[in-house]
Structure prediction request, 317 residues.
Amino acid sequence: MKITDHIKNAKGKTLFSFELLPPVKGKSIQAIYNAIDPLMEFNPPFIDVTYHREDYIYKQHETGLLEKISYRKRPGTVAICAAIINKYKVDAVPHLICGGFTKEETENALIDLQFLGIDNVLVLRGDARHADSSFIPTPGGHAYATDLLEQVMNMNNGRYLHEDHDAFKTDFCIGVAGYPEKHFEAPNLKTDFKYLKKKVDMGAEFIVTQMFFDNSKYVDFVKKCRENGINVPIIPGLKPITSSKQLISLPKVFHIDLPEDLSEAIHNCKSEAEVKEVGIEFMITQCKELVKIGAPVLHFYTMSNPEPTKRIAQAIF
Ligand code: FAD
Prediction:
């Protein structure tokens, strides 16, 4: 079922959902089931699975030759989605990224998804490879989420690459990313909104936000979206803090602010166990407020560690 229909059917009740990372190469599907099982009691109507672009390293041979070796650390997104649908009978939402795919490969991936009965996709540009300092598009692929979105919308209208006959119309419900604190590359919030609006005008039907820890950022973002004519559901992305290292890593990697009261409380913790408690309690308060203001879904970035999310969901749902 489409995510927009799940939200409609909930008639204003806040839903619970979460995101998983494919396990690192070499783990079994049981790693995924272990990350899902503890959260099924909260009836997630959908589960997202991230996509990870291939990365590369250079290996120096004895001869002096420098060999570029490409590898993918977390393969398996599409197969994991199929396993989730099969085992749990809930909608699986694969993330679809520009990086690492030619348009031809994207089309084939979308055909696979459609054959598997997947109704929703989250369309993204994707992160830069760790070895690159910024995002480099794949030759023959897409540079922005808008370009990838156009390809998915074309297929929804029966237009495939190099096909001029009456082709089957896919019916993907498309989500895109939104950034309450601005995407780090956008020169200003206004420009970022311009592209978000473009994504929605092109056919995106829901937005999932980057994590935030200050609900006023989400409230302002929703207000600005509505003022800009963006009227699709805006699903808040939420990440419980579980370690003191995240005081530095989250702002650095995700370009978000941590509120002063949260960062002070973590600074004052005497152990990592205490940090985890502070992170969970903070998020319970944050989630209660989000439910009160009518967030359609609370969507948790679990990093495939279900326990903190379970504690929060127990307090909310
Ligand atoms: P875009 O919408 O393409 O925007 C990128 C930048 O370009 C922005 O600054 C925007 O303002 C600007 N821009 C947008 N369109 C245009 C245009 N047409 N012309 C010029 N400028 C433009 N990364 C992964 O690799 N895998 C994942 O599974 C993944 N899941 C994510 C899930 C969520 C909910 C979020 C919020 C992020 C996720 N990311 C993931 C990270 C995401 O890929 C990065 O934040 C990336 O840098 C931007 O992706 P985007 O889709 O927002 O890009």
